[in-house]
Write a structure and sequence with these properties.
single chain; 206 residues
């Protein structure tokens, strides 16, 4: 992304850590919850790749097209999953946590949020591509901020505030049984919160 190198590397670390944890969640979920964790892993790792400071590691010209294609495919997958409405969480498999135990919502609202995030990444990839006139190719609103950028900033700011309000300590299981790292709902929510914050920061550089 176009911006200072220091904050850029912090964004890379934040998104990469979130994406890596989502990969860990894939092993602790089944069915639709596993698919949701995969989608979040792609989002986190893709955001980490896009957040690499361009001034330090200049991306090839085709990289922006690749980002747009990957996130566009992720958006289509999220749209297809959302068409079915709220998905049922599959039954528990021995040795694995269900979607609810892993803190991974798999309803239509989750897929629509993933769709918005994917489209935001496509928008930023197109805006950052060589030869593009940045975000100013769109219609500017008050203060010169493009309307689409402003709308996405409002959406993700509200998401971050709501996710932060929900991030409260979750009681452990009865009897003091250990909970797998991939099945901790507060960590899953923290990852979504982190990616929301990263999305806001990346939109500010467009």
């Amino acid at each position: 992304m176009h911006g200072p190198a220091g904050p850029g590397w912090l964004l890379v670390a934040l998104c990469a850590a979130s994406g890596a944890y989502c990969l860990l969640r894939v092993r602790s979920c089944v069915g639709a919850a596993r698919a949701a964790a995969r989608g979040e892993a792609v989002m986190g790792l893709g955001m980490a790749a896009m957040a690499v400071p361009a001034a330090v590691v200049p991306p090839p010209a085709w990289a922006w097209l690749l980002y747009a294609a990957v996130f566009g495919a992720a958006g289509l997958h999220a749209l297809w999953a959302a068409r079915g409405g709220a998905l049922r969480t599959p039954g528990r498999t021995p040795g694995r946590a269900t979607g609810s135990a892993a803190g991974a919502p798999v309803g239509a609202a989750h897929h629509l949020h993933h769709l918005v995030g994917s489209l935001a990444m496509v928008y930023m990839a197109v805006a950052m591509a060589p030869g593009a006139d940045g975000a100013h190719t769109g219609h500017a609103g008050p203060g010169g901020v493009p309307l689409l950028t402003g709308a996405l900033l409002v959406y993700f700011t509200v998401f971050v505030l709501r996710a932060g309000a929900r991030l409260v300590p979750v009681a452990g299981p009865a009897g003091g049984a250990a909970v797998a790292w991939g099945a901790r709902p507060e960590l899953a929510l923290a990852c979504r919160l982190s990616m929301g914050v990263a999305m806001v920061a990346m939109l500010l550089t467009v």
